[in-house]
């Protein structure tokens, strides 16, 4: 029961609050895709900083709580994708294959990183950099229809009304008539 209570408190409740605020599905899809894409960055502990920078740069184009929630949800993915990003980066650069042994991991954790370990980290970063735009685009395409349905279902605030060309003409006439 403790795991379900934690899951509801940490993921389901914040997601419901986000969906019920009347945000646009496009903004939610972009924010979620961005949070997951940055959340799988192959260096642990950096993703929150990356998300903060992205939120500051994109401002109103993204929704900060959604980006951070998606980043939090992506944490298990981050750890599972380090090796695929490493291998992809090795292929992209034509670099040597880095053997993943307990000795290499020990050197990383004790701060005795050799040149090979540093190159492998660079390969993982290269793999993520090349894959990230495709991951972001694919996630956005997947999440957009999902959020259209979810926002319609859980939204308690009406979405912003679409302005028709006629309403803009009426505003211009009213301004001219004054």
Describe the protein in words.
The protein has one domain. It is 76% helix and 0% strand. It contains eight helices and no strands. The protein is elongated. It is mainly α. The termini are far apart. Keywords: Membrane, Transmembrane, Transmembrane helix.
Radius of gyration based on Cα positions: 22 Å
Cα shape: elongated
| Structure class | mainly alpha
Helix amount: over 70%
- Let me know the average pLDDT: 86
The total tally of domains equals: 1
Number of helices: 8
Low-confidence stretches: 163-178
Distance between the termini: 66 Å
Question: What profile does the largest beta sheet have?
Answer: none
Q: Please report the total strand number as a whole number.
A: 0
Order of helices and strands: HHHHHHHH
Secondary-structure blueprint of this entry?
Layout (H helix, E strand, L loop, with lengths): L1 H18 L5 H15 L7 H12 L5 H10 L1 H19 L8 H9 L4 H40 L10 H13 L1
Give a quick summary of the entry.
Keywords: Membrane, Transmembrane, Transmembrane helix. This protein is an all-alpha fold.
List keywords for this structure.
mainly alpha, disordered C terminus, 178 residues, 8 helices
